[in-house]
Each structure stands twice: as C-alpha cells, then as structure tokens.
Design brief:
three-stranded antiparallel β-sheet, rod-shaped, disordered C terminus, alpha+beta, about 15% strand
C-alpha cells in the first residue's frame, strides 16, 4: 500500500473536555519518524496507537521537528555542561584561575605566579574592531603580547 493512501485512523489523545479524534495513519508515520529519532523505537507506531496515540501538541511538535530541535539544544547544553565540569576539575587540580579583561588582551589563565594569555574571545574575527580608515581599534599588540599555548 502506498503510504499516502494509508488512511487507517490513528488516535489523538483526548484533551480535557474534548472528544478523541484521529488522523490518517500516513501522517502518524511522518510524526513517528521524528519521534523515533528523539526517543528511540522501543514503542512501535502500532503500540503508540494502542496506548492512545500522540497528544495534540506532541503531534504538532513532532511534525514541525520541534522535539528534534529541543533534543539537539539539550545535547549541546549537555556537552557545554560536561566541558565546564571538566574545566572546573582542571582548574581545581592545578589551582588555576581564569580571568577576562576587555582593555588589553582578553582571557588569561593564572597558575601560581604565572599568567598566560590565551587570547580574545572570537579572536579569529576582529574585523568589528577595525575603524573605517583601516586603523585597528583596541587590538594593538595582541599578537605580540599574547602567545597562545593552544
């Protein structure tokens, strides 16, 4: 059967004060692809139908791939949290401190009496600091003062 012709009813969960409704099975398959990418295939589409189907908002979010976007954002947040936890562990291990200055050369790492600059945040693109006449604004000596250990 052509999947767009599969019009078997797929249930939509009953909202408070409302009646249950259905959508064509082929539309549920579209939503299920997004569902499976986010939550796995532990529950088949058939099993979801047996359990009452998708909620209305859930269905819209799955079709619009909003759940996938949230999942990706969550993954990035998780990676950032892991990075920060590992950075914090390294700072504790080496009794190091991080600082940031806007008036000279950016980010510094201090261990004991040693202070090393690791550069401007976004140092690769400092074009926004170049004045219209081509003169540098606030970046004088960055490369000579700041040797990156990275």
């Amino acid at each position: 059967m052509n999947h767009l012709n599969d019009t078997r009813p797929f249930p939509i969960q009953i909202e408070r004060g409302g009646d249950g409704s259905t959508i064509p099975w082929w539309l549920a398959e579209v939503a299920y692809k997004s569902y499976a990418r986010c939550f796995g295939r532990d529950q088949s589409l058939e099993r979801l139908a047996e359990r009452g189907g998708f909620g209305r908002d859930e269905l819209v979010g799955l079709i619009r791939k909003e759940w996938e976007k949230r999942r990706k954002a969550h993954d990035v947040t998780g990676q950032m949290n892991q990075f920060l936890e590992e950075l914090a562990a390294l700072l504790r291990k080496y009794e190091a401190k991080l600082s940031y200055t806007t008036d000279d050369d950016g980010i510094h790492v201090q261990i004991g009496n040693e202070d090393v600059c690791i550069g401007f945040a976004g140092r690769q693109d400092m074009s926004h600091l170049v004045k219209a006449d081509g003169a540098q604004s606030g970046t004088e000596g960055v490369d000579s003062e700041c040797t990156s250990p990275l």
